[in-house]
């Protein structure tokens, strides 16, 4: 296994290697796992929304507020919540229309 170049560090004595991408340091931010058990806020909200659908609306607000610019890996889960909130709203409106009309 290629260990990569070793960089001198005054504190560590040159024992550690750089794991970031030298050309684009923004890619290093994706080395961290996603919150909520590694699934991300969006997918955990989608699953919890089946218990309490108001969570879908909270996550849809995050999606519409461009929360995914912080971490693009969250985009698909938050979009799924926005779709679930829309479907829930439509089903609720149709149900209320059938009951009261």
Automatic annotation (TrEMBL):
The keyword Transmembrane helix applies. It comes from the Eukaryota. The chain crosses the membrane at residues 40-66, 78-100. Keywords: Membrane, Transmembrane, Transmembrane helix. This is 60S ribosomal protein L18a-like protein isoform X2. It comes from Elaeis guineensis var. tenera.
